[in-house]
Amino acid sequence: MTSVASGVARKKKITPSAILMKVSMIFVVGVAVYWLGLNLTSDPMQFAQVTVNGLNNGLLYALIALGYTLVYGIIELINFAHGDLFMLSAVFSFAILTELLGAQSPSGTNYILLLLVLLLTMVFGAVVNTSIERLAYRRLRNAPKLAPLITAVGMSFVLQWIGLKWIGSNPVNVNTVLPSTTFELSGIVINFKSLVIFAITIPLLVVLAFIVNKTRRGRAMRATAQDKDASRLMGIDVNQTITFTFAIAGAAAGAAGIMWAQTTGTVAYNLGFQLGLIAFTAAVLGGVGNLYGAVLGGLIIGLIQSYNDGLAIGPGQRWSQTMVFTILILLMVYRPGGLLGETAQEKV
Fold first, then answer.
1. pLDDT by residue for the chain (348 residues), tens digit each?
2. How far apart are CA 210 and CA 114, in angstroms?
3. CATH no. of 16-25+39-334
4. Nearest CA to 272 among 247, 296, 254, 246?
5. What is the dihedral of CA 317, 322, 325, 327, to 10 degrees?
6. How far apart are the first and last CA of the chain?
7. Cα separation values, 171 from 102, 154, 264, 317, Å
8. I need a surface site. Which of 39, 91, 180, 228 has the fewest CB within 10 A?
9. What is the pTM of this model?
């Protein structure tokens, strides 16, 4: 989306409310910096360890958040079914890798099978997401915004029902093929599974950014996001572009699903609700519609949760969700467009 600036430059008036906003923002940032500095100086090793754990979770949140921000950036739809697509992808990877192929322990052969199932899960997520777009969202593209929003909520319940019928109502433990070994780096304990998340997630994010920013298809996506009618006049197949967007969003959810199953060792039919809500929060935090904002938001939320849960001086784990959404509310007050987003102005 683009904003249209006024042709006449107006000098901003300094009002008491604006001064109060600035002062309160500086106070909030100061408190946060003081809290982090206090923990850093009291126990630097623990602070570093918690930071590594936070980045680990943040990358998974970023992968899920990318699906939200891609779809919103193109058709301005908050796809609430995306979190449950992540859940279904996790269940699919468990069914194929563990139950069908029998890969239940670390081995060279099972590592190859893991990479194969990673690709299959990404294809599965892409196919399911494009099917949802074709059957549910496309017909409502020109309808009032409330109609596709309700449809997205309905699709979320449909995917939850499929997951419930597939694995039942209780969480299922997964025998992962990734080893549970750890090693120390300057006193910081790093799990091998964390390295796998970095080794798989970061290249996927780089490839996705390259597709959106450097390829012809990516230019078509950005043009469609700005003006669908003008894009059609320029020869862009808008329907195909939107379908492609849903495909790569679903592939990202598929990658996040298998990574979650293999690193946490559990899947559940309601997994997508909480993690989908966190990923959506990450997309809003970074700026909905901004690719890099989704990654930044995911990493920030991962760090917030990890600092809150793992630092010696802090509220504690039971306040984890409260901390995340309190920070989101404060950010919306001070910067409604998100960290990297822009507040669009209406065209007149």
1. 444 344 444 555 678 777 887 888 888 889 888 988 999 898 889 999 899 889 888 988 988 898 888 888 888 888 889 999 999 999 999 999 999 998 888 888 999 999 999 999 999 999 999 999 999 999 888 888 889 889 999 999 999 999 999 999 999 998 889 888 887 877 788 888 888 888 888 888 888 888 888 889 888 988 888 888 888 888 889 999 999 999 999 999 999 999 999 988 899 999 998 888 888 888 888 888 788 888 899 999 999 999 988 888 888 888 888 888 888 888 888 888 888 876 554 433
2. 25
3. 1.10.3470
4. 254
5. -80
6. 15
7. 19, 23, 12, 21
8. 180
9. 0.87
Q: How far is CA 9 from CA 6, 12, 16, in A?
A: 7, 9, 22
Cβ neighbours, 10 Å, residue 103: 22
Q: Which amino acid is at 292?
A: Y
